Every structure is written in structure tokens, then in C-alpha cells.
Amino acid sequence: LTHLAAGDWLAFTSRYAVLSFWQALDAKHADARALAGCKIAAVGTGTARALARRGLRADLIAHPATGAELADALLDEKPVPRRVLHPRSDRARPAFAERLRSAGVTVDDPIAYRTVTSANRALLDETGALGCDCIVLASPSAAHALHRLNVVSAHQVLVAIGPTTAAAARELGLPIAAVAEAPHAAALVAALAAAIDPVGVSP
User: Torsions phi, psi of 130, nearest 5?
Assistant: First the structure.
């Protein structure tokens, strides 16, 4: 943060990164003024809204909402970014930073937060969740947790919140039936409805 200069970019690939970055900013007794002169990039509208709630407007929003798409969008900027600060999860996929670095962009990507899963088979048994008809995966880490539990049955429909989560799930052998067109609740519901009833949801 102390090395950010005018013209540098600050890139967020999740709303949790926004929250963690803001907490770090507050811990330094700083605020949005510390970002003066920097440009801000966000993956998808959900991340952009998290920024807006803190009084920050994203200069660039990637659609589809993936790190690879955000990297490509940044490389299309004129001038091409010289340096990008990317606060990230400890489980962030490498595509974003790799694509920028391969184009000669300096990327600082400190771990801003850690994802801790508490996959618990006993809890699922106790709550009856194992008998559900549909499973919604909202992050790659959720896909990994579900895979470790080894509880998916043939009748269950799996829906992913976006292409990054879907790719992670498929790499693990999880059968993704549908992918939300945007990373928000309404799109997830639409994807789930389409997966359950491809010819139209019955009234």
C-alpha cells in the first residue's frame, strides 16, 4: 500500500478482498485518500458494489467475472498498467497474475485473507443436508470442500456461481449442471431453475 503511486492499479477479484483490504487500510489509520491517483479494477458487479459501499468507484469492471477476463481488460487499457496491486485469497487461482506478468506488468499480490473450510460430514447428516436435491457452489474453495466430503449423489444437481468456480469443480470431477450468468442471487436462481427444468419452470 505504501508503494502505490499515481497511475498504478488496484485490482480486486472478490468482495472479500475488498473487505480485507479496507480493514488493513483502517488498521493503518488511513482511508480512501490513500488511493488518490490510483485506478481501481474489479471482477464483476458484486465486487464493484463492495467497493461502492466504501465510497470507491471501480474504473474497470470485468465481464465475465473472472480473473483472466480482468487481466485481459487491464491489458487493453491505454496506457497498459505499469504496476498492479492485487490483494488476494491464499487460494486465489494464478491466472490473473500470470497473464499480467507475462505481458511485462509488475504484480504485487499479497495474501489479504485466508479461506478456512469446516467441511463436516456429521453436521450434514444431522441437518439432513445430504438429502438435498440441489447444491450451489459459490466459490472454488466450496467445490474443494464438497469434493473432500465425497457426498454428491447421482440425483443431485450442482450449480456454480461463475465460470471460475465451475472450472474448479469440473477439475475435481464434480458434475456441474449449470453456471450462473452473473455472480449474484438472481442469476443463481435462474441457473438453478434451468438446470432442474430445462424446458421451463412449472408454476
Answer: -65, -20
Gap between the Cα atoms of 170 and 161, Å rounded: 13
Amino acid at 101: R
pTM, full prediction: 0.72
Beta-bridged to residue 49, according to DSSP, are none
> Would you tell me how many other CB atoms lie within 10 Å of the CB of residue 49?
14
Crossing angle of helices 140-149 and 163-171, rounded to 10°: 30
Per-residue cell: 88: 488476494
Report the alpha-carbon distance of residue 169 to residue 161 in Å, rounded.
Answer: 11
Average pLDDT, the chain: 87
For 170, residues 6+ apart whose C-beta sits below 8 A from its C-beta are: 176
Q: Which residue has the cell 477439475?
A: 171
